[in-house]
Design brief:
The protein is mostly helical and about 100 residues long. The protein has one domain. The chain is built from four helices and no strands.
Length: about 100
């Protein structure tokens, strides 16, 4: 399962890739135009982090999402032990705990 920080990083890296494509004069004009068109409404790093922060703040509010989509960071800040990653993924798939 993709973790929120991995998804966030992938979106940011995809935006960077589209920017590169849009500026690469060795590519056909159509490819550059398509990249520019997609970038018009593509979230930037600040917007991705904001979405992650919002999801973190409303984690205890009932939602249509069972787990966060984005993260406020692009790096993993969970368990340092790789064996615990599965535990974190399982917790996320179960949703907020009922304490």
């Amino acid at each position: 399962m993709t973790m929120p920080h991995e998804r966030s990083r992938a979106v940011v890296q995809t935006r960077d890739f589209l920017v590169e494509l849009s500026k690469d004069r060795s590519l056909p004009e159509k490819i550059r135009q398509d990249a520019k068109f997609l970038l018009r409404h593509f979230p930037d790093k600040r917007e991705i982090r904001m979405a992650g922060l919002i999801e973190k703040q409303v984690a205890n509010v009932p939602s249509i999402f069972a787990f966060p989509v984005f993260s406020s960071t692009l790096e993993f800040h969970g368990a340092s032990d790789p064996n615990k990653v599965a535990d974190l993924e399982e917790q996320q798939s179960e949703g907020p705990s009922q304490a």
